[in-house]
Fold this protein.
Amino acid sequence: MDRNPLQGSVVPFARRWHIIQEIDLIRLVQEHRRRLALCGQAEAMADALPDRPDGPTMTLFLQALETLVTRGELADGAYLEAMLCNGRVDPLTDTLLDHVRHRHRTDAAAARELVAAFAEADAFAAPETLGHMLRSFFTGCRRAVDFEQLAIIALAGHRLTPEARGLLVDALAESLAA
């Protein structure tokens, strides 16, 4: 069996799972929660402008952004594709998965731009620009997470166990409440 190191789950030889259980989605939802927490940090930072966050907060935020950049470059959708594709050409599935991959790349690019902006000595000299960059980042990242979860619900449909569907619905509800 092949392993997907990004997800840490065993990918079966079959092109898709017949039943998608809660355990199949837990790592993905945990990654989504990490991304949403990072979005919350970016929003708090944007709200506090022109004040600069303290050193440790800034360091942790930049490390999280670097991790997002790395994961965005590595995320190729293989796990979702294996879970959701049915072995035949399906334009809807292909389009939705392409859109998910595009959003991952977009989030990684926005994170890369923020890291570069914060590397500048005078990053906080233009708080309007920095605020716009932060807001664009967390808005796009939140939308990407929501879209990915909705795509799973749409494509997996009846193959989701009640627990797996509940996990995704609860994650979407948390996202809306944030």
Q: What stands out?
A: Residues 1-16 have pLDDT under 50 and may be disordered. The radius of gyration is 18 Å.
